[in-house]
Amino acid sequence: MIDKTTALERCDDIVALARRLGADAADAVMRADSAEGVSIRLGKLEEVSRSESEAIGLRVFVGQRSASVSSSDFSNASLEALAEQAIAMARLAPEDRYAGLAPRDRLAKGPFPGLELIDPVEPSPDELREAALEVEEAARSVSGVTNSNGGEASFSQAVVAFVTSDGFARSYGGTGHSLGASVISGEGHAMQTDHCYRSTRHRADLPSAGEIGIKAGERAVARVGPVSMPSGPVPVVFDPRVGSGLIGHLLGGMSGAAVARKASFLLGHENERLFDPAIRIVEEPLRPRGHRSRPFDGEGLACAPRALVEDGHIFGWLTNSAAARQLDAPLTGHAGRGIGGAPGVQASNVHCEAGECSPDELMSDIIDGLYVTQLFGQGVNLVTGDYSRGASGFRIRNGAIAEPVAEITVAGNLIAMFGAMRAADDLEFLQSVNVPTLRIDGMTVAGS
Q1: pLDDT, tens digit (0-9, with 9 covering 90-100), for 339-352
Q2: Which of 165, 118, 157, 149 is nearest to 24 (CA)?
Q3: Same domain, 444 and 378
Q4: Residues 282 and 417 occupy one common structural domain
Q5: For this protein, what is any one GO molecular function term (predicted)?
Q6: Local structure of 411: helix, strand or coil
Q7: Inter-CA distances, 3 with 58, 79, 108, 363, Å
Q8: Are 96 and 191 in the same domain?
Q9: Residue 448: is its pLDDT beyond 80?
């Protein structure tokens, strides 16, 4: 895989080429990835995989017209044809008065903080195989597990470079280790499946294969024999692995791009107290070893930590340059950039801070309720905030988790759900958006 210097040079070359061919401004992003993985099923090697990819994206501006193109062919002839194509497309595009690079005076300036995103330890294929074998064996050792979907271990590396015609030129890299298992419990029509996966930047931060595998097995066994439950309004408690989706919906509603399109359920509510004051939601893009840590955003602005929700209020809209211009709002450094297309809006390393009570204490006064461990379907309307998703999990009876339940639906509206949200103290940083156990009273459950 190419290094950061080579990636920067390629971006710089194509931006300079686009300017020579007639672009008034341009930026380029390059990403190179490599990954290798091993999967084991029923103790036998099932698959060994390795992949590598490199791609570059170019965005050009001709006046207030713009176009984006991308390629994985880095020959001189191909890159020149790519730049020519982008400029020709831009000249035919409609004018957009909000288009343009980020303001030059807002571009990030070094030195950048050390984010510890690169692990110098690279596992061998044999080490990946042993890890995958161990995690599956641990999962299968749990009493009640009857079959396996397999154990997996993988290692990945990535390099990202970004260059603009205004002089910004930076790159960074990262690594990833992952380990997990998925197993089956029960027999015939009563079979249930569940899993446990963990991913980290550094291998030293991964839980042991035994811990991950046992968690996968216990989750699968606990799901055997689900029933439905009566319909009606009940307190709903969200397991952290699904509760993070609620914060994802909040981020979608706070997206300046969605607000500019009048497509956010938060429009008209931005000055209201939406959450209990005890709920605080924080973004930490510079967290060392964070899943989504980055020194700069997709337009070259410095990333900075901030409270997204404090004292019950959202701080404002998450913006890239186009959204900030259209909304006449502050530019917050939340541009997200893929290889193709214009920048979107993306937050980095978001979490809801832990509350003061344990999960058991959080649900101790629930006479009859629902503990959700899995959600299905796409029944969330980010324009209206209406929320309706298929769910499975466990019934809560007299303050304790009881029998498994399935084939039910949970429904509400995100504005009301945020207002009723309460948090336990079991926050862990396992993914890009993290929450503790969350409780929301007054949701509607539709069952039998």
Answers
A1: 988 999 999 999 99
A2: 165
A3: yes
A4: yes
A5: metallopeptidase activity
A6: strand
A7: 19, 19, 21, 51
A8: no
A9: no
